[in-house]
Design goal:
It is a single chain. The chain is of the alpha/beta class. It folds into 2 domains: 6-101 and 295-314, 3-Layer(aba) Sandwich (Rossmann fold), CATH 3.40.50.720; 103-286, NAD(P)-binding Rossmann-like Domain (Rossmann fold). It is 35% helix and 14% strand. It has 11 helices and 12 strands. The chain has helices at 15-24, 38-47, 85-90, 103-118, 121-129, 158-171, 199-205, 225-231, 248-256, 276-279, 295-314, and strands spanning 6-9, 26-29, 50-52, 72-74, 94-96, 150-154, 174-178, 193-195, 208-211, 236-239, 262-265, 284-286. A 7-stranded parallel β-sheet has the order 8-7-6-9-10-11-12, with helices on both faces. Helix 1 runs parallel beside helix 11 (295-314) and helix 4 (103-118) crosses helix 6. The longest helix is centred in the C-terminal third of the chain and has 20 residues, at 295-314. The protein is globular. The mean pLDDT is 97. The chain binds 2-keto-D-gluconic acid. One of its GO terms (cellular component) is cytosol. GO terms for molecular function: glyoxylate reductase (NADPH) activity; hydroxypyruvate reductase [NAD(P)H] activity; NAD binding. Pfam families: 2-Hacid_dh, 2-Hacid_dh_C. Residues 111-291 form the D-isomer specific 2-hydroxyacid dehydrogenase NAD-binding domain.
Amino acid sequence: VVTRPRVLLTRRWPAEVETRLSARYQVTLNEADVAMSTSEIRRAMLEYDAVCPTVSDRLDVSAFPDRPRARILGNFGVGVNHIDLAAAQAADIAVTNTPGVLTDATADLTIGLILMLTRRLAEGERELRQGRWQGWRPTHMMGMALSGRTLGILGMGRIGRAVAQRAQAAFGMKIAYFSRTPLRETELEGLSALACDSVEALIDASDIISLHCPGGGANRHLIDAGRLRRMGPSRYLINTARGDIIDQAALTDALQRRAIGGAGLDVFENEPDIPATLLNAPNAVLLPHLGSATRETRAAMGMMVADSLDAFFDGTELVNRVA
Ligand code: 8YV
């Protein structure tokens, strides 16, 4: 008999994906659905042919044992900064991710955060629910109009462009961007956007700065105390990318001193631990990493991982390979 490859899912996945994977593989589910430790992952690397992690797992170099059984890591998500890709490469383990399928969901949520922040939606809801609303008045809880304002996109990849399209088409915003790799005209897909040649120039040109670059590596603390100071009390910062792109302690301090206009955050430096000083910071909107959280998108992400595993074990070409 041919034994079926052993696959570990480190969290519970959408039911239809678990069902599909179980038809072909010996699947082990993390029934408790709690995050696994790096040492548990290291043990799993010795027992399973495929390990499928998420952003809640830390696969640093210590997660890679000598002579692992695992041959592929099918990451549930597009961001792979929680995986030491060099260690995977050295251990000859393939790594795949899920680009594209979560672009719209993440761009939608980014727009949601922009509206929550500039129109003070969370603040207003808290006031009403807590019985503090004094009734309508002309100067009550005024926010900032988006039309004619400039949205600065840091990282003009798939998600950055989808956010820019929405902001320009739906709200009449101007777009500025900074991108490591210059974009070709065709990649802008009809968007009229100002290319900035530095993060500083992007900050200067923008009313709202939204982060859409990968985390980790050189992007760690790209938004540091100096750049927050440059933003000043009138600009807003949005992060639906990765927590470590911002120096979170410096941001918290800037928010507490009202030294920047505000921040809308879906991602954090040490999820799910959020320091109390950030939890109670004025003019911050905080969400629990919901960027890709629609039923449709999470199912599509899982199916994409399943496609990658199938291709790997069929010996066909591995699209979405990152290592
Ligand atoms: C996921 C994400 O929720 O894809 C990413 O990089 O941050 C989100 O879509 C998360 O990564 C799940 O692993």
